[in-house]
Amino acid sequence: METEIVGYGIDEFYLALSAFDKAVCEACAVSNFTGNRYVVHYKGHSSRIFTRMCLHSQGLISALPKTRWAKRDYECWEFSLIAPHVRALMEGYLLFFYLSETPISEDEWFVKLNIMHLNDCTRRVRLHQNIRSAENEAGCREQQVELKERLQGSEYFKGLPVKLQKQLLTGKALMIPSRDELLEKLGADVGEFNAYYDLVSNYTHILPISYYRSEANGRGTGVQNQTDLSYIVFFLINATYWLSISTERMVELFPDAAKVRKGKRSKFSLGPKENMKNRV
Predict the structure, then answer these.
(1) pLDDT mean over 51-79
(2) Which helix (H) or strand (E) holds 106?
(3) Which pLDDT score is estimated for 7?
């Protein structure tokens, strides 16, 4: 993989930065425009995921060198500064498309939603258990039982394979299909996506891949170097795709939002001053 990624130069960086800047502006404008609406459940929950994607995109572009989104007295070319945001975008992209798909029935949406609730509740049980908050842990365990009963009473859930039902009832799954199944449905290359996800995960955490090949005054130190530059460009290109295609889906859900997509001139709150809605 490294031989495929390494090889981008500073000119490609400026092109990738410009394209991602445009994508972030349009996504934020669409998110602002579609906020606080009373819509059907699946659209409402999807828009929340999209908002999270916008926030991580803002974090990503603000962490980059040469960006207009942040002012600083130095440049840091360390790939690990953007890896967590890239990872979040990859997760958001999958969850967003999963939730934004029109459900075949109210019961299917009911199951999707309660599987998500059960996953959240299960994580909270572990959290409260670890911080020894017995009362909150007990409350979450009660909710776990209730959520499992809801799912087991659903005809749609009963129609799922028994093995899958058991897996979903553990609360460990966020979605009904596995990541690979969802990627196949989206027409993505499963192997490539998983490889990229593993790479950014290694740079999100302090794991050997992120520091074994560090070089004095080079890779992994923050100074401009070929490897970090290439990694940044490569994942900027991909992040632009994941964000742009998600913005297109948002416009499918909210067709009137198409008019606010104006590239880097898109207007939205909480961004560079030239993009502020009320700027004269």
Answers:
(1) 96
(2) helix 106-130
(3) 87
